[in-house]
Write a structure and sequence with these properties.
The complex is a heterodimer of chains A (about 375) and B (about 290). Chain A contains 13 helices and 19 strands. With about 375 residues, chain A is an alpha+beta fold. The chains are: A alpha+beta (about 375), B alpha/beta (about 290).
């Protein structure tokens, strides 16, 4: 789960990291008031779950309150990489001497939280890693010991020479690790970490993603979810316990298992169609889940055909077939439905579906070709 | 022969009295797996009723379960909040293999659990995996026993039902399996593709391997380099997620394209560069294998 910059700033601030004040507003008037209160130049920053905000014009420097109002009215309602801007952050502009990068994420290979720091901040770190790998220092943190003092110092020392800056940065790095672990994050980033002419080290940007598996035990973090930044169908799928990602095509896919669901989407594309979604209904034949899945798929007006691809393993195919029939009774679906079932008791399942007047087969290729064809003529 | 588990494997089920644990314990026992103990804190000294009037003793903790029964493998059906704790306990109790089925274990919990298990030389499979099955010998986890058959093919996959799909096609085509291993869809997993390929390479009964990967991470790419450098046996590959959009998690916590890394195109390209034949449709796996074995 991604959280907004202003929310990540709160987490950082709570961990002790020096973060300039800021106010989240939803109208130009509020932005003007906030800018008046701070006095001087402020930064107006679009709050969306997307990188590249600056490039898209979603970050502006406003020299006075009137300008803050004007820029806010331009930024609100802007579309940044598909995300509509509904909130902006107003924060006093800082005098900047240097910009560095400090980030931490779970590294798959090291199987640990891993820091990446660079004295070249304010830029795309993946780009820096590619073009000048020597300007990056990396360190994996052993989860059994946590961040050790000399490790934080080693990272900080790569960023700055003056001892006063090193000691501030070292503290910030330790605090970032605390915020990361304490929020159940999968990624946390300060980009840039600045130094000011007065010799202070500060975080003027904040980014954090949360491990979805942590949310059950962190209600304070879970409530930071902004459902306005996702399609309604995805919110409903999550509430129904389904794994769903909306896509742009017209073949609605309902599959058990994530890997098979991806393989099904790929096969739709292979046969010249476009999948409307990724949807994993999980391992059971529970009709309630099938009902929820059908409701979500049919709420997408692009969908022209519904494709079921079910592998019956432990759950037998005949049980799944009965589940589908039961579900269709409860929901009025006008779109054509094609079903593929394979695995244990598949012959019995096909008979059950045919008796109920539904078209079914056991070949994945056959059903996908048929779905693509139906989407084409619909 | 088979890899990781065979008919001598003695299994303790952690979370044996839960809904999933009890259901799959009966399935494992019906398949012929030697389930020797169960663990559910607070339910020690009770018995678990298996199929055919077989019973399994339940213990309060892993230490007792292992020392009383000589179990060498554990399977974890414990809910996410307690799963990492169950793995730590199993590693300390001295089993050789821990199969973690649970989905949704916090990643930072797993970072600790993997480090702890590594220190003790314990193999972890998963989490968020379907387990493994050596046809005719033993199954540990949730793979359906009806769809496999004994034979010379090793199967290793990050997925559940997509693995079943491929295995069912193999079985239907008369290509049985030595062992089918589901390594799990999480970002931090204990046993990766390379560990499985090493074991299949050493297993004299395995003649060829099917490797089923998906978007996210670089485990497949590293495995491909290993195949080229070290493996004498043919490997057929499949990668799911060619149509997955970047930055979105596709069901599995680990199935996400970050930036430009971890795409299906990249993995397919690296497979091909390293001599792995790639099936574009799941239905092509059987034909490629038959070609490789001919």
């Amino acid at each position: 789960m991604d959280i907004h910059e202003y929310q990540a700033r709160e987490r950082f601030r709570a961990a002790g990291i020096p973060v300039p004040p800021g106010r989240v507003v939803t109208t130009p008037k509020e932005a003007e008031l906030a800018a008046e209160e701070y006095g001087g130049t402020v930064v107006i920053k679009a709050q969306v779950h997307s990188g590249g905000r600056g490039k898209a014009g979603g970050v502006r420097l406003a020299e006075d309150a009137a300008e803050a109002r004007r820029y806010t009215s331009q930024i609100l309602g802007m579309d940044i990489n598909g995300f509509p801007v509904e909130k902006v952050l107003v924060t006093p502009a800082e005098d900047i001497d240097t910009e560095a990068y400090v980030g931490v994420l779970v590294d798959r290979k090291a199987q640990a939280a891993t820091f990446v720091v660079s004295a070249e901040g304010g830029v795309d770190i993946e780009e820096v890693a590619r073009t000048s790998p020597n300007s990056i220092r990396k360190l994996s943190i052993d989860p059994r010991y946590g961040m050790l003092p000399h490790q934080a110092y080693w990272l900080a020392n790569f960023l700055y020479d003056p001892p006063k800056l090193v000691s501030q940065a070292s503290k910030i790095i330790t605090q970032l690790y605390d915020a990361f672990v304490g929020s159940g994050a999968s990624m946390a980033e300060i980009n840039p970490l600045i130094t000011t002419p007065a010799g202070e080290v500060k975080a003027i940007d904040a980014k954090m993603s949360i491990d979805d598996s942590e949310l059950f035990r962190r209600p304070d973090v879970a409530k930071m979810r902004d459902t306005s930044s996702e399609p309604l169908s995805e919110t409903r799928a999550r509430e129904a316990g389904l794994s769903y990602v909306k896509l742009d095509g017209d073949v609605g896919c309902c599959v058990n298992g994530a890997g098979l669901a991806m393989a099904t989407m790929d096969l739709v594309k292979h046969y010249g169609g476009e999948p409307a979604n990724f949807l994993d209904i999980g391992g059971s034949s529970n009709p309630d889940k099938v009902v929820a899945a059908l409701e979500i798929i049919t709420s997408d007006s692009n969908v022209k055909v519904i494709l079921f691809n079910i592998f019956g393993g432990i759950t037998r195919c005949d049980d799944v077939a009965n589940g589908i029939i039961e579900a269709i009774k409860h929901i009025d679906v006008e779109l054509p439905i094609v079903i593929r079932l394979t695995g244990t008791n598949e012959d019995l399942a096909l008979q059950i579906l045919e008796d109920a007047g539904l078209s079914a087969c056991t070949s994945m290729d056959e059903v996908v070709e048929k779905a693509v064809e139906l989407a084409g003529v619909a | 022969m088979a890899i990781f588990i065979d008919s001598d494997t003695k299994v303790v089920v952690q979370g044996i009295t839960g809904r999933d644990g009890s259901f799959h314990t009966r399935e494992m026992m019906a398949y012929g797996t030697r389930v020797v103990a169960g663990v559910t804190p607070g339910k020690g000294s009770q018995n678990f009723e298996g199929p055919n009037e077989c019973t399994v003793p339940i213990f309060n903790g892993m230490d007792e379960a292992v020392s009383e029964t000589g179990a060498n493998t554990s399977v974890v059906y414990v809910p996410p909040a307690f799963a990492a704790g169950a793995i730590l306990e199993a590693a300390e109790a001295g089993v050789e293999l821990i199969v973690a089925i649970t989905e949704g274990v916090p990643v930072l919990d797993m970072a600790r659990a993997h480090a702890f298990a590594r220190d003790r030389g314990v193999r972890v499979l998963g989490p968020n995996c379907p387990g493994l099955i050596s046809p005719g010998k033993s199954k540990v986890g949730i793979l359906p026993g009806q769809i496999v058959a004994e034979g010379p093919i090793g199967v290793v996959s990050r997925s559940g039902t997509l693995t079943y799909e491929a295995v069912f096609q193999l079985t239907t085509a008369g290509l049985g399996q030595t062992t089918c291993v589901g390594i799990g869809g999480d970002p931090l997993i204990g046993t990766n593709f390379i560990s499985c390929l090493e074991a299949f390479e050493e297993d004299p009964e395995t003649a060829a391997v099917v490797m089923i990967g998906e978007i996210g991470g670089t485990d497949e790419q590293e495995a491909a380099a290993y195949v080229k450098e070290t493996m004498s046996k043919p490997v057929v590959g499949f990668i799911a997620g060619r149509t997955a959009p970047p930055g979105r998690r596709m069901g599995h916590a680990g199935a996400i394209i970050s930036g430009s890394s971890g795409t299906a195109e990249e993995k397919i390209r690296v497979f091909e560069e390293n001599g792995i034949s790639v099936a574009i449709r799941p239905a092509d796996i059987v034909g490629l294998l038959q070609g490789a074995l001919a």
